[in-house]
């Protein structure tokens, strides 16, 4: 199977009125095989949307090579566009057209006609629970339904690769969860490769098999969520409430202790997830009485703060 995205040395800058050229993407190298959902994470303004716009051929990079599904995206843009689509979390459709009219309109732009167009529109309304809204104008839809319409539109041309830009932006938790379930279905049941941006860690952790962190236009880390947690030494949190005295120096010098905040009766520790470290920590509390012990797994939010800081 051909890789979904192969990018090397991608750079992009925008001309600004007062500050000259602003470099937004700097030497981006990425290989995305498309087997698992791939997440591009980063703080606001880090370049996620610009990168996705380049991958989906909406804008050209200033330099670098880009192959999408084995096709040179800079030379054969038209061929690439037949195989991909993009959906954004802030969808914009002709506001006075109904859901059905919008889907038919988009379908026609993708070159569908007659029965083929009818079938594609019916299938997308069925798959994305849009039938009950088919005669509702875009301007009267809720944010969640607009998002579903955007996903439905993006599936009309039967893409092999789908780019999603912040697909759950502005949705309440329940609606966001429904949208994530749809994204999983698109990937798993409809066999579409998915590359998505998000700045919401739990979303990346739930959906993505691989994550690239973008900061100020550069990829600063790329790995599976599990390995990112392990390799970045983001440790387990131990919160201990105790009475009595402990040897604080001995506690602070334990190898594997990443950080320690110790005050009277309370120790907040971050430790390597490692048996030896745990038992050494517990031994320093032998002379005291442990009143409460709380353990908390690190999550990607910690990784993100560490990298984005
Ligand atoms: N057409 C443009 N002209 C000038 N600057 C631009 C243009 N598009 C994007 N930028 C700038 O490039 C930088 C990256 O923007 P981009 O939208 O790609 O970031 P992002 O990570 O998607 O941010 P967000 O999460 O806020 O959407 C920002 O500083 C933005 O102001």
UniProtKB/TrEMBL annotation:
GO terms for molecular function: ATP binding; ATP hydrolysis activity. It comes from the Archaea. Keywords: ATP-binding, Nucleotide-binding, Transport. InterPro entries: AAA+_ATPase (IPR003593), ABC_transporter-like_ATP-bd (IPR003439), ABC_transporter_ATP-binding (IPR050763), P-loop_NTPase (IPR027417). Residues 5-241 form the ABC transporter domain. Belongs to the ABC transporter superfamily. This is ABC transporter related protein. It comes from Methanothrix thermoacetophila (strain DSM 6194 / JCM 14653 / NBRC 101360 / PT). The lineage of its organism: Archaea, Methanobacteriati, Methanobacteriota, Stenosarchaea group, Methanomicrobia.
